[in-house]
Amino acid sequence: MVNEHLEYVFVALGLLVFLLYHMWLLFTILGEPRRTIIGLNAESRHQWVYAMMSDPFKNGVLAVQTIRNNIMASTLLATTAITLSSLIGIVTSNPWSSDDTSSILDNTRTIKRISITICFLVAFLCNIQSIRCYCHVSFLITAPTLRDKEAYMEYIGKVMNRASYSWSLGLRAFYLSFPLFLWIYGPIPMFACSCLTSFGLYFLDTTARITRDLHTNSFTKESNDVESAVETDYHLLAGNDLAQNAALDNVSIQIA
């Protein structure tokens, strides 16, 4: 009886601590993004998109390679998540590991396995969405047309940040799986792990004042350089040869 009360109290408190921390993190990202690593990284990726698209012919290979590295990281996490969820399903379906499941809601072991499996499935889906967005960006960022349009660059930057946000959500699902794994050994280890995980994530997610100042100065300098580097002429697609030749003739006349 006492053990059941501990399950209800400490498990609920552990999940509440984890939830309250991430609610605070979400409001901080929306209100003061530069106080968090996620907000600073979002601005860095935005500036990176502008820098890459200032000269897509020169920076195209670098941009695609960078995006490919992010795709590989998301693929690794997605593969790990679906593998672990499959292993949990195999273990729970074996006859030697089955127990009395006459009432699933009252079976604590079943609830623990389902919770961990849901975490890994959420991580898998988030990383799949991250891969989808990164693949979309890899096509858009090397397009030679309309590279001088602010709205076009803004859209690519938003898709890039959307991919990173999906990757971060998948990583948070992995973080949540640690307390749920320790829940197997009891509610007190689960509660302690939730508190320690939230405490450690606070130092990983927040930024110091010197870091914010350095990024602010860097963003201001980079934005001025990128704006001066963006050209004003259009780069048409290869479907209209006459228009393309006429544009090249106009450019050559102006240079002469």
From TrEMBL:
InterPro entries: DUF599. The keyword DNA-binding does not apply. The chain crosses the membrane at residues 6-27, 75-94, 114-143, 188-204. The keyword Protease does not apply. Signal peptide: none annotated. Keywords: Membrane, Transmembrane, Transmembrane helix. It comes from the Eukaryota. PANTHER family: OS02G0292800 PROTEIN (PTHR31168), PROTEIN, PUTATIVE-RELATED (PTHR31168:SF33). This is DUF599 domain-containing protein.
